[in-house]
């Protein structure tokens, strides 16, 4: 296997900038997910690495080798697409063997590789069947096997699970992760499903409008999004984002919404908010970090129930705060009627603050946080 490195990669289609100066390094053996909304440039980025389209500017390396002008067939990369067309009239064995025959492998080598690959993917017993005699998940595994059998330098996958039903997708997610861990594969995986990215990837590259927004571990991206786009994109239900103005009275900082609600800020959050260029901020808070109270308490904000969604183990509580709708969560037994009053409180240590003008976080960067917390830094380095 080999790593993949992109330096300032640009792809223009006429005037359209599909990929806008993306730099990222996928380490050897790393599973990296490219996520972002439709049209943000994920597939284009992957196709540039595969060599299926020409790069407008920048450099792409596979391991140490510059591959900008290398023919796709010489890149030694395996692609797995959403529409993994298997040969319908060939057996599973022949589907796996075909890419090897094309490359002139000897019969004995082919047999060894096909059976070895089938073992890894637990499709050994299916080798004599035809694709139509397989379930969707089994077909998906054959498609994966066809890529794996060649022993490529890296895998490029474009939404390979999106044709499967929800249950199978969850199962295949686990299998893909397992597959990656077992063979130590370098994987670039495109998805618009943030949950797939968070659950499978070592690192996630979040894209929007052709630009790389943040590239980090799922944990870092979830807990320390760099801007409001990433904050709203990763996590489900999406993070609540509330615009407000920061003020300080008698040494107590608070955020005030346009419709007059006011919530206190801890000293630390107050200091952060003060760094906003205009005094206008966007407060970000995830559903699990909003405490709900049936009566008014100091430091709470009154809202009204919009609707309540029980999901079995958790209840999503939609709340109306002025003209905004918020999602909070409560236990399985939480019940309330529309328009009931609920007082909410934001957990200060899980509250995010963004500059309303730049939409960038007001939190210290990862490096600054490490410098602030030497004990944690030592733990990370150990
Ligand atoms: N061949 C093409 N000619 C012109 N524009 C293109 C072409 N292919 C893609 N684009 C444009 O480039 C941008 C990025 O497209 P891309 O296919 O990379 O998006 P994506 O992130 O994979 O989206 P999706 O989640 O919908 O698959 C889009 O604005 C798209 O319209
Ligand atoms: Mg795409």
List keywords for this structure.
382 residues, alpha+beta, Rossmann fold, OB fold (Dihydrolipoamide Acetyltransferase, E2P), 2 domains, five-stranded antiparallel beta sheet, disordered C terminus, binds adenosine-5'-triphosphate, binds magnesium ion
Summary of the model, kept short:
The chain is an alpha+beta fold and 382 residues long. Helix content is 28%, strand content 32%. Helix 2 (92-102) crosses helix 3 (107-120) and helix 2 (92-102) runs parallel beside helix 4.
Write up what this structure looks like.
The protein is an alpha+beta fold and 382 residues long. Helix content is 28%, strand content 32%. It has 11 helices and 20 strands. It has helices at residues 42-50, 92-102, 107-120, 136-148, 166-183, 194-200, 218-223, 228-233, 267-274, 366-372, 374-381; strands at 4-13, 16-26, 31-35, 57-62, 65-66, 77-80, 154-158, 187-191, 203-208, 211-216, 240-249, 252-256, 262-264, 280-285, 290-293, 301-310, 315-321, 324-330, 341-346, 352-355. The strands form 4 sheets. A 6-stranded mixed β-sheet has the order 6-7-8-3-9-10, sandwiched between helices. It is elongated. Magnesium ion is lined by residues 42-43.
Give the total of beta strands: 20
Number of DSSP helical runs: 11
* Overall outline: elongated
Walk across the major sheet and give the strand order: 6-7-8-3-9-10
Q: According to CATH, what is the topology of the largest domain?
A: Rossmann fold
How much helical structure, as a percent, in the residues? 25-40%
The class by helix and strand makeup works out as alpha+beta
Rounded to the nearest angstrom, the distance between the terminal CA atoms is 27 Å
Residue fraction in strands = 25-35%
Q: What is the makeup of the main sheet?
A: 6 strands, mixed
* CATH homologous superfamily caption of the largest domain: P-loop containing nucleotide triphosphate hydrolases
Spans of at least 5 consecutive residues whose pLDDT stays below 50 are 376-382
Bound molecules: adenosine-5'-triphosphate, magnesium ion
Question: What's the architecture of the largest domain, going by CATH?
Answer: 3-Layer(aba) Sandwich
Overall pLDDT metric = 92
Number of domains: 2
Radius of gyration: 25 Å
CATH class of the largest domain: Alpha Beta
């Amino acid at each position: 296997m080999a790593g993949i490195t992109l330096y300032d990669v640009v792809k223009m289609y006429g005037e359209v900038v599909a990929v806008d100066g993306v730099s990222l390094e996928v380490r050897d053996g790393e599973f990296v997910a490219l996520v972002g909304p439709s049209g943000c440039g994920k597939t284009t980025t992957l196709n540039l690495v595969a060599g299926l389209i020409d790069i407008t500017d920048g450099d792409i390396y596979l391991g140490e080798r510059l591959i900008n002008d290398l023919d796709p067939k010489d890149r030694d990369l395996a692609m797995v697409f959403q529409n993994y067309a298997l040969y319908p009239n060939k057996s599973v064995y022949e589907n796996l063997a075909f890419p090897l025959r094309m490359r002139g492998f000897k019969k004995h080598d082919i047999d060894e590789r096909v059976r070895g690959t089938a073992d890894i993917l637990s499709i050994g017993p299916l080798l004599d069947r035809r694709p139509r005699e397989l379930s969707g998940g089994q077909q998906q595994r054959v498609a994966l096997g066809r890529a794996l059998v060649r022993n490529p330098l890296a895998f490029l996958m474009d939404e390979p699970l999106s044709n499967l039903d929800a249950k199978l997708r969850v199962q295949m997610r686990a299998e893909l992760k397992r597959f990656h861990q077992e063979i130590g594969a370098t994987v670039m995986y495109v998805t618009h499903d943030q949950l797939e990215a968070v659950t499978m990837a070592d690192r996630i590259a979040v894209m929007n409008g052709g630009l790389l927004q943040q590239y980090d571990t799922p944990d870092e991206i979830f807990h320390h999004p760099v801007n409001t786009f990433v904050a709203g994109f990763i996590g489900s239900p999406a993070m609540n984002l509330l615009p407000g103005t920061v003020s300080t009275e008698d040494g107590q900082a608070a955020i005030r919404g346009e419709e007059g609600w006011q919530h206190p800020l801890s000293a630390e959050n107050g200091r952060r908010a003060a760094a906003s260029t205009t005094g206008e901020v966007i407060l970000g808070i995830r559903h699990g970090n909003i405490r709900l109270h049936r009566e008014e308490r100091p430091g709470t904000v009154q809202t009204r129930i919009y609707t309540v969604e029980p999901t079995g183990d958790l209840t999503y509580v939609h709340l109306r705060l002025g003209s905004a709708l918020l999602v909070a969560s409560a236990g399985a037994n939480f019940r309330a009627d529309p328009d009931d009053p609920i007082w909410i409180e934001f957990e200060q240590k899980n509250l995010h603050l963004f500059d309303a003008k730049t939409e960038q976080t007001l939190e210290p960067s990862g490096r600054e946080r490490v410098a602030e917390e030497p004990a944690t830094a030592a733990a990370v380095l150990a």
